[in-house]
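Assemble and predict.
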Amino acid sequence: MAAESDALLTQLRKGVLEYCVLACLRKDRAYGLELATRLSRYQVLFASEGTLYPLLSRMRRQGWVETTWQESTSGPPRRYYELTDQGRTALDLFSRAWEPFRQDVDTVLEESR
Amino acid sequence: MTRTPAREHPLVTAYLTDLERALVAADPRERQDTLDAVREHLTEALGPSPSTADVTEVLADLGSVDVIAASVTPAGQTPAVALAGPTPVPATAAPAPGPDAGAVVALVTAAFALLVMLLAPVVAIPFALAALVVATLRVRSGGSRLAWSAVVLSAGALGVAAVLGLALLATDGDDDPVPGPVHSEPLDQG
């Protein structure tokens, strides 16, 4: 049952998680650990911090985020992730689609009870 | 308690070695990006001299290397289409597109029309017209060379029909008296 639940969550995260990463970067850029810490508050959405990095790599190649290095006062330089205009557009599109999508899912589930 | 620099801690080196191995079949660029980012994450999270308890906790939060490996794009797949995770590769490749069936039918029909044009033009002309229409439609929808051939052949058949028709008219004209010029009444100008 737990395995089935994990598989279901994995499926549900697909197509959603990258937009949540974009949303976390909407207001401000962040370095990897900082972003992972922000996302780890959402335990259903975000299974493990390590899976963030392949996702960020794909998002960078997609042109949705870009990276810059900056010196840190407490250690080695940090790689900061930042939204591009393309990423912002993708996030806006997702935000507009998400609400009616969520409402439909809720309605279907509610009506079938 | 003995403290070891983060990157030299045996648990960290073992984790990174396992991760490198687990990502061996990943898209090369994604693999390198992931390894670099995880190293940066560990350096940042562990500080200069973490305890084993710190390391254990940070590695647990990162998750098992198998879970990370399951989320990468396999080598050879396009990352853009697998943005939220790798998409399974279809078991069989898509079949290669076959010959353009419409163009083949038009070509055969046009050839038939051309062959029977001399024997029975009344039968051949509708076939040639049909072939021309079908072939033209195929050409307009990005048709193949076959479709173009069908257009040429069917147009050729219709050209032969036109020549035959003109010849027939000329023959008929030799037999029949040439009609005189038609005189029309001048328009009443006033």
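Helices of chain B lie at 10-22, 28-46, 52-62, 65-70, 101-116, 121-140, 145-175.
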